[in-house]
Amino acid sequence: MPELRKDPIIDRWVIISTERAQRPVFLAEEEAPPKAGLCPLCAGNETMTPPEVFAIRPDHTPPNTPGWTLRVVPNKFPALRIEGALNKEGVGLYDRMNGIGAHEVIVETPLHGQTLYTMNVASVQNVFVAYKERTIDLLRDKRFKFIMIFKNHGAVAGASLDHSHSQLIALPIVPRRVFEEINGGLAYYKYKDRCVFCDIIAQEAEDGSRVIYENEAFVAISPFAARFPFETWVLPKSHVASFLASGNDDNYYALADAVSTILKKNNKLLNAPPYNYMIHTAPADLASVPYYHWHIEIIPRLTKMAGFEWGTGFYINPTPPELATTFLREVSLSEGA
Amino acid sequence: MPELRKDPIIDRWVIISTERAQRPVFLAEEEAPPKAGLCPLCAGNETMTPPEVFAIRPDHTPPNTPGWTLRVVPNKFPALRIEGALNKEGVGLYDRMNGIGAHEVIVETPLHGQTLYTMNVASVQNVFVAYKERTIDLLRDKRFKFIMIFKNHGAVAGASLDHSHSQLIALPIVPRRVFEEINGGLAYYKYKDRCVFCDIIAQEAEDGSRVIYENEAFVAISPFAARFPFETWVLPKSHVASFLASGNDDNYYALADAVSTILKKNNKLLNAPPYNYMIHTAPADLASVPYYHWHIEIIPRLTKMAGFEWGTGFYINPTPPELATTFLREVSLSEGA
User: Fold this and answer.
1) In this structure, what are the phi and psi dihedrals at residue A327, rounded to the nearest 5 degrees?
2) A163 with A227, same domain?
3) Helix (H) / strand (E) containing A169
4) pTM confidence score
5) A residues 271..290 contacting B (CB < 8 A)
6) How far B297 CA lies from chain A's nearest CA (Å)?
7) Is B312 in contact with A278 (Cβ distance < 8 A)?
8) Which domain holds residue A221?
9) N or C terminus: fewer CB in 10 A for chain B?
10) Are residues A193 and A161 in the same domain?
């Protein structure tokens, strides 16, 4: 059984994934990802994954057969286990709980070689719809406090499979970074009676030097204190605390348009970089607070300079966000981008 | 002039290093590190670096000539600038200050190809002595609040030069992670009237399952909530808040012995992994508080799984610290290790 352990000094939980660790993990032993024919995420290979929990497929096609355009399956090597009651206990001065949770894979396309870069906006929209549907379903389980949605694209960014996919982990805790943002937002709100994210969006709209792209509902900015070159945040222009609350069809289409535009621009400017993105959203019990504002953070993995950052929380960003904005704005996405 | 910018939501400063950014940084454009003959850190090439600010060398040898066993020079491409007054200002809701600081390189050996793995304990001790001497000197400058000392070994860990070296950055702020540890330590102290690190050391000594190595003055443990496989912390056994206060010769020899032992064991078990280490120490004005306890965190860079961690503050560690401890303990360092 995996285990969640709390750092005794700072407020951070870590999954200690005992089941994945039959032996130590060494870089050199990494296996190459399977090729198209043998890829468990490809259409035709549905039996290579656990049974699907969600799919976008024609009505006449049975589950776990080809025909789908998007599919969600449990992770074959889950970091957390769905079975059991959540037990918390102390071990001397330490705290731990058993690793209850869910870990799912969103297969974004049946085609090996397609990516969010190359998919059309409607297909990207489906990905966000799938995130929403799975989140709603998993939050029925009261053991779960937070649904963490993220994407690793490319081996450098942590993807172990080439086939375009994202992941979802349902957690019995709120991850540290989101928790800190909520606290920061709350402190600002107490002082100013306004949402800090809304204020940022207003200031960026007026300033203009860090706005990469916007449409009717979403804006993509290079954050003022960006940690990484070409780090981009996509935020709803109006105040919405939870990703779920942005979820009517029009909004998710606009979201897909904004995310897709940034990814295409990154792809062209930065030569198809590996990247991560993560959705930061209010936990279920704070879904409509006035002081938090959901968003997606997109981080191309361009530098290896990020060595000591984990140990210090200190970042050196060699590309000012204003410069990144200028470069990304100049990228033209006319035909075939 | 580089700039320090504060994240408007959470309490984190970032260096926006404008001078390093003549153009965007792309992974593919990285250059291979120079070979021995052309290496600016090698003995004989002293003129390729800025003039030394500290050296361990025979009395009869002039500065910036061969003969030294250790040398400290300003970084040729500093992330921060030493000249000027520290100015802080607001920009709408944002906060920034100019990038005042120092950035130095500790050249640990005159020999290309030597590493902390292969150097003898007395030579490793010299490295810690150099950290101490430079820290004392830089803290005379009242603009600096914190001296951050870290090592990147191997390209994957962020080293741009092969020649064994570590780095020091003098900062006008305390980096976030250290600040959080101080706050966590203070909260624990208020509640228990004891140092949380001292309590951890006592509990680990009694439990034993996460103690990798110890000598008379230092202990090396796998932390209970380790974020990374084979993450190791080296701590002084007695309560000491500041790295400087551990600095008599005997103590630094014991420190060098402990760090050297862990690095040698990592080297043998994990096949000379790239790694980072960082010194977490109390800032100058908290140098003798009862609630903080300095230590070194050593992190082999074994997995590429750390993709989304920056965005969520959430870690999945596939190697339980008890298992890492067992493996590392079993490594024998008898002759030639």
Assistant:
1) -60, -45
2) no
3) strand A165-171
4) 0.93
5) 271, 273, 276-278, 280
6) 7
7) yes
8) 176-330
9) N
10) no
